[in-house]
Specification:
The protein is of the alpha/beta class. It has helices at residues 5-14, 22-31, 39-54, 59-74, 81-91, 99-131, 145-157, 173-181, 196-200, 225-234, 266-269, 311-321, and strands at 137-141, 162-167, 187-192, 205-209, 212-213, 219-222, 238-242, 262-264, 284-286, 288-291, 298-301, 304-306. The strands form 3 sheets. A 7-stranded mixed beta sheet has the order 3-2-1-4-7-11-12. It has a 3-stranded antiparallel beta sheet with strand order 5-6-10, with helices on one face. Strands 8-9 form a two-stranded antiparallel ribbon. Helix 8 links the parallel strand 2 (162-167) and strand 3. Helix 2 runs antiparallel to helix 3 (39-54).
Length: 326
């Protein structure tokens, strides 16, 4: 994956500012270069970066914070609405305030955001655990902090729960699950993704994180998600997208459903190989793919489980009445 954080260095230099400090570059590595996984986690890290940059209390720090937020929204947030949506809300109306008021408003908004996000996640996890209470086996594909929270809470309620974690070579999200599932005492089957059909035999549900939720109830997630959803559906295993409704792409109401961008998988597939003309091998493929609504049993959100067809009306109601508060 390209080291996009260094594009921000060039933007700062073009604006007459010095290079970002090491802490800022580390935040950007975690977020835009996905040094850590999970869109929800990236939102929290973006908030921490903003607080770090305005901590000096200077107008330059404020300018850097706003530039960093806009950079994240334009890069990592381009196809991940929760990131762009959250930053848009944080920055809304700041231009009408003097600099000191802008900084205080940002501090207050970040604190309020963290509290409301935690409350939404609490409701989502509780309702998901209640809905999945009869499950004996869960498949969790690719890392999602929301899915992780659901599975750990479900495991606390059901000590005999089996969790199947297939490892994807696309992003190595399975290993990230192990870092949270094993210390929680969960019974985990960690298998290559080629064994997905095998482990599905012992699962009642397949859980997916959601990068982008669309108004028609479909969602985007890491490549491989659609294949697993299709296999699960054919095997009689229920398929769930797990997401805060803030990940709904409001542009999709107007037909904005672009094909996912492709990326190079050279670092994943070619590392360590010494084959003549290796550079001629084309490793380009999408990073995300669409899981269509017809393969999804339900979306598990803070509003409770809902069939994909219900996303359209709920999204309209939530963002019309509460959008300015979230």
């Amino acid at each position: 994956m390209p080291e996009r954080r260094f594009d921000h260095v060039a933007e700062l230099e073009a604006a007459g500012l010095s290079r970002p400090d090491d802490a800022t570059l580390h935040f950007l590595w975690q977020i835009v270069d996905e040094g850590v996984l999970g869109a929800t986690r990236h939102v929290a890290l973006g908030n921490q970066l903003i607080l770090h940059l305005i901590d000096t209390g200077s107008e330059e720090g404020l300018k850097r914070a706003r530039m960093a937020a806009e950079f994240i929204a334009r890069t990592r947030g381009h196809d991940t609405p929760v990131i762009g949506n959250s930053l848009k809300l944080l920055l809304a109306g700041l231009d009408d305030m003097p600099p000191l008021a802008q900084m205080q408003s940002l501090r207050d908004r970040v604190r309020e955001w963290d509290l409301t996000a935690a409350e939404r996640k609490k409701h989502l996890v509780a309702r998901a655990v209640r809905h999945l209470g009869a499950a004996k086996g869960i498949l969790a594909f690719d890392y999602s902090s929301t899915v992780s929270a659901i599975v750990i809470a479900l495991g606390n309620a059901k000590p005999d729960l089996m969790v199947a974690v297939p490892e994807s070579r696309a992003i190595a999200g399975g290993a990230r699950y192990l870092e949270e599932f094993l210390p929680a005492g969960l019974k985990v089957r960690f298998v290559p993704d080629a064994a997905i059909e095998h482990v599905l035999e012992d699962c009642d549900a397949a859980l997916f994180g959601v990068e982008t939720l669309r108004a028609d109830g479909s969602f985007l997630n890491t490549i491989g998600s659609r294949l697993i959803a299709r296999l699960a559906s054919l095997s009689g295993v229920e398929v769930f997208g797990c997401t805060d409704l803030l990940k709904l792409d409001l542009r999709s109401y107007e037909g904005h459903r672009p094909a996912p961008a492709t990326r190079s998988y050279d670092s994943v597939l070619l590392a360590g190989l010494s084959i003549e003309n290796l550079g001629n091998a084309d490793t380009s493929a999408p990073e995300l793919e669409v899981v269509p609504a017809n393969l999804i049993t339900a979306i598990l959100s803070e509003y409770g489980p809902m069939p994909p067809v219900a996303v359209w009306d709920l999204g309209r109601k939530v963002f019309a009445s509460e959008g300015s508060k979230r």
